[in-house]
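Q: what does this look like with zinc ion bound?
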Amino acid sequence: MKKYLFILLCVIFLISFSGCGDAPLEEIKKPPRPPKGDDGIATILIDAGHGFGDVGCISEHLGDIYEHHLTMDFANRLAEMLRSLGYNVLLTHDGEKLPNMAELMLEAEKMGIDFDREKITPENNIFEAYERTLYANVLTKKTEIDLFFSIHVNANADTDKAEGFEIDYCAENSSSEMSSFAFDAICRRLEEAYPERRLKKFADSWEMSFVVNKYTAMPSILFETAYASTPTEADLLLDDGWREALMQTVASGIDDYFKQ
Ligand SMILES: [Zn+2]
């Protein structure tokens, strides 16, 4: 009898410490659902790196094509693809019209957005990284932005052999967790579509983070497509089909993130 009582006690003990009962809440770890606008459609803000007074990187291998031409091309392709998937898509700029920074600062102040005036370039002929974050933060007060995606072209002054993608997010700001989910989803698609190509993945500290990643109030990713300083990479950048396929892959990653 004692033996049965012992077994019964063991069973009760095991049940109380196993997963049979209600699991403690802290053990259930699911990625948080990406925020959605009132209409249930996610809004993505695409940032074509550089432009206006800042042409971005220049390379002899690209001739008279500069980084800002390529980032605008990538951004337009990605915008079109995401729109066709049903997303609201906005661009930080169209390469032609600059936001008026004086008006933007005034608006930000009225909205109670915290920003550093010192970081805004006095001349209103360029659109620096910090200014883009201010623009994004003002915009998200009006239309909730669910993801900020900045596109660039890489360069390495020390070698003409650097190759591959680079992708970054800030791991030390208020939207780091959501950024990491978007980052993972995009990386998965890139690794799947380009298994041979190098992919440098960075979860940056506050100090190391790109300005557009750390000061934006929404999940934010910066993507470096290829090295303009490497001849073979420049050839990819100049290839229409390559740019199109790359943006298809990125669009699929973004779509995965919102559907997970
Ligand atoms: Zn750049």
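The pocket of zinc ion is lined by residues 49-50, 56, 67, 152-153 (CB under 6 Å). DSSP finds eight helices and six strands in the chain.
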